Amino acid sequence: MPQVEIYTTTYCPYCVSAKALLQRKGVAYTEIDVTGNDALRLALLERAGGSRTVPQIFINDRHVGGSDDLHALDAAGKLDPLLTA
Asked: Which parts of the sequence belong to the Glutaredoxin domain (predicted)?
């Protein structure tokens, strides 16, 4: 079972889209809501290599990027192998 973490905010449509894709795939994930939490935002900034936007998605501690990146991996047939590793 892969470890999937997704950093989100409550008002983010891209977060909703990324979570919906993971749910369609039947993947459990840990959601880390950074809304209004400067400490979590700073941790995200450091962990994501300077990326400030949400969502930021990690699969087995590998940073895969945001919602568009997750959907692109899926379209290219590269997401499922990450989720089964």
From this structure: 4-64
